[in-house]
Design goal:
Elements (H helix, E strand, L loop, with lengths): L9 E5 L2 H4 L48 H15 L3 E5 L2 H4 L10 H16 L3 E5 L7 H7 L6 H16 L6 E3 L11 H5 L10 H25 L4 E8 L2 E3 L4 H23 L4 H9 L10 H4 L6 E6 L3 E3 L33 H15 L3 E5 L9 E3 L2 E3 L3 H20 L3 E7 L19 E3 L11 E3 L1 H11 L8
Parallel strand pairs: 1-2, 1-12, 2-3, 3-4, 4-5, 5-7, 6-8, 7-9, 9-12
Antiparallel strand pairs: 10-11, 13-14
Length: 478
């Protein structure tokens, strides 16, 4: 068959600084919200109170050391290059550049570290795709200002992005403003640095914080295009399609209402204004968004592309209490009886990825980028002919089925720039702060109790993904 993947398709992997860098207190880095959430930053079920938040970092927080990419970046990037990566998604830790977040002058040691990482990627011809804020709000901004609930964060963020855009204008082309920006509705501390406990946070305050982030995102897009017109700047949302539990029209209406809560973010990023459907929700919930002078015009600085994570779909019903809640990702949802689930209860739905790609492209007619997709599983290290490895056929099966559906979307006419699988190397889970929830093609010898040598071992999926990239997707159809 002829290849459906474009000639310059960007294959790679995705990470976040707080989940794999480590070195949380070295070279002038300040604390982030991640450093005080040793149990992960996502409530286990919708409506749960904030996860455990400590006053200071504790030894049981695996994110403090991560997998020590800070000291092993050359080794890890060499492994990514061996797989044939065209792109590597990573984040800059805001508090490594501005330790508190509100300083006027940056931390040079932090800037110099990312210079070295970008130079190492360039050595192998790997494009960096950089997330400016990936669940890493400086802790000081959360505690002093209540995070994005405070409008002052817009100015601090602008200073940060102007600094890194200027520093790396010749090293980085692809940028994302916020990671899974819509997750702030469900995990306000992790996603938005909002210190107010969830049970005390009003919808007015939450959606006002959303507004501040969206204005800041549009401002970053404007600043970036002024510094380098060749920058490609995108938004990043958590995509989670929903199906009605039945053909009852009320269930279909529940689906629409659920999906609108997520479309709100991409609609504003792509269209530059609040959509009409949200106005009724605001009115019925007593929400009055305060616009400062210039906000309306600032939002018109729309993104160059839409990027998203995709792990699962959910089901929705107008009477969810009759079904019991599912064990979803950040957004929750009901369990679909037609789908299998991962060890963590995330429902596996490759066709859902094709639907998401078509829905986003039909809605916005903008290029798309899949920047997270993968399977978290409890891998077992075994002795292989070339040393320790993991026989992770289940991961290969998951990714192969999803990528075949990506191919179907391309045949549907969707414009897609690239695909970065989540966690190409094992890292600490954002939602649970576990290392046993492994996603990588590369096994890292570190355990949930903090023990291990941090040695890297190639899993079976390493060679599989290398073949997929080398054939530009043709290997998916063998």
């Amino acid at each position: 068959m002829s290849n459906v993947f474009p000639e310059n398709f960007l294959w790679g992997g995705a990470t976040a600084a707080n989940q794999f860098e480590g070195a949380y207190n070295l070279d002038g880095k300040g604390l982030s919200v991640q450093d005080v959430t040793p149990n992960g930053g996502v409530p286990a079920n919708p409506g749960d109170k904030n996860p455990l938040i400590t006053e200071q970092p504790t030894e049981d927080n695996l994110k403090l050391e991560g997998i020590d990419f800070y000291h092993r970046y050359k080794e890890d990037i060499a492994l990514f290059a061996e797989m044939g990566f065209k792109v590597f998604r990573m984040s800059i830790a805001w508090s490594r550049i501005f330790p508190n977040g509100d300083e006027t002058e940056p931390n040079e040691a932090g800037l110099a570290f990312y210079d070295k990482v970008f130079d190492e990627l360039a050595k192998y011809g790997i494009e960096p795709l950089v997330t400016l804020s990936h669940y890493e709000t400086p802790l000081y901004l959360a505690r002093k200002y209540n995070g994005w609930a405070n409008r002052e964060l817009i100015g601090f963020y602008e200073n940060y992005v102007r600094t890194v855009f200027t520093r790396y204008k010749d090293k980085v082309k692809y940028w994302l403003t916020f990671n899974e920006v819509n997750s702030v509705l469900h995990a306000p501390f992790m996603s938005g640095g909002i210190a107010t406990p969830v049970e005390e946070l009003s919808k007015q305050d939450l959606y006002q914080a959303v507004h501040h982030e969206l204005v800041a995102s549009a401002s970053a897009t404007k600043i970036g295009h002024e510094i380098n017109p060749d920058f490609k700047i995108g938004c990043m949302v958590l995509a989670m399609p929903a199906y009605g539990m039945t053909s009852n029209p009320l269930d279909q209406l529940a689906v629409r209402e659920f999906e609108n809560q997520n479309y709100l973010f991409s609609d504003i990023h792509a269209r530059g204004k609040y959509p009409n459907y949200i106005k009724r929700y605001f009115e019925e919930n007593g929400i009055d968004i305060q616009f400062a002078e210039g906000d309306e015009d600032m939002l018109k600085n729309t993104v160059d592309f839409i990027s998203f994570s995709y792990y699962m779909s959910v089901a929705q019903a107008h009477n969810p209490e009759e079904y019991g809640s599912g064990r979803g990702n950040v957004l929750g949802g009901l369990t679909n009886p037609y789908l299998e689930s991962s060890e963590w209860g995330w429902q596996i739905d490759p066709v859902g990825l094709r639907l998401v790609l078509n829905d986003f492209y039909d809605r916005y007619q903008l290029p798309l980028f899949i920047v997270e997709n993968g399977l978290g599983a409890k891998d077992v290290l075994v002795e292989g002919p070339n040393g320790p490895t993991v026989e992770d056929d289940y991961r290969i099966d998951y990714l192969q089925k999803h990528l075949v559906q990506v191919g179907e979307a391309l045949k549907d006419g969707v414009e897609l720039w690239g695909y970065t699988t989540w966690g190409p190397i094992d890292l600490v889970s954002a939602s649970t702060a576990e290392l046993s929830k492994r996603y990588g093609f590369i096994y890292v010898d570190r355990n949930d109790d903090g023990s291990g040598t941090l040695a890297r071992y190639k899993k079976k999926s390493f060679a599989w993904y290398k073949d997929v990239i080398a054939t530009n997707g043709q290997a998916l159809y063998k």
